[in-house]
Amino acid sequence: QQQVKQSPQSLIVQKGGISIINCAYENTAFDYFPWYQQFPGKGPALLIAIRPDVSEKKEGRFTISFNKSAKQFSLHIMDSQPGDSATYFCAAYGGATNKLIFGTGTLLAVQP
Amino acid sequence: GAVVSQHPSWVICKSGTSVKIECRSLDFQATTMFWYRQFPKQSLMLMATSNEGSKATYEQGVEKDKFLINHASLTLSTLTVTSAHPEDSSFYICSANGRISTDTQYFGPGTRLTVL
């Protein structure tokens, strides 16, 4: 119940295209859902986050869509650029523990 | 704002020696700091959670006598890998959350440990 399932494992997108990464969770006590971007050899950087009281949040080219009833959330990267090539992790927080539960990661490659 | 630093960024040591990694929150006071371990092409694995002035809480399977964590102040936590062995080689990352937004974690740049 503490797992966050993330797909796909890897993704190749053409420059200018839309990248979509999906995550699903089971624990309804989760109330905070961040996305992190990680470049090779670097720590994860907080990209965007959402709480369950809204269904969508947009920051620049990055959008989180949240479906509370389905217990799913996704990251959309519009107009994907080669500089977006990185590993993306979804995560969930909430409930009795003070921990972030991470998804397994998605390696995104944006081809020029 | 919300910058977390780690030192060193990489370290190479001989088997049997101990290595200390520092994690600092530069522009905020961290109520809680976390230590993660990441193997190549894998997700982050939480090792332990520490609060300032109290003992760290270790995740199941993490040896507390091997991975010593000290959280001496609201801006500094240290991880010491004692008697390091090649299997301890990994990417160690710390994170911190603040007093206002306790669910948001800000990550350091990571420390690459290689044990020969």
Overview of this protein structure:
- Chain A is mainly beta and 112 residues long.
- In chain A, 0% of the residues lie in helices and 58% in strands.
- Chain A has no helices and eleven strands.
- In chain A, the strands form two sheets. In chain A, strands 2, 4, 5, 9, 10 and 11 form a six-stranded mixed beta sheet that branches.
- In chain A, strand 4 and strand 5 form a beta hairpin.
- Chain A is globular.
- In chain A, 32% of the residues are buried.
- Chain B has 116 residues and is an all-beta fold.
- In chain B, 0% of the residues lie in helices and 54% in strands.
- In chain B, the strands form two sheets. In chain B, strands 2, 4, 5, 6, 9, 10 and 11 form a seven-stranded mixed beta sheet that branches. Chain B has a four-stranded antiparallel beta sheet with strand order 1-3-8-7, with no helix packed on it.
- In chain B, strand 4 and strand 5 form a beta hairpin.
- The termini of chain B are far apart.
- The interface between A and B is medium-sized, with 22 and 23 residues.
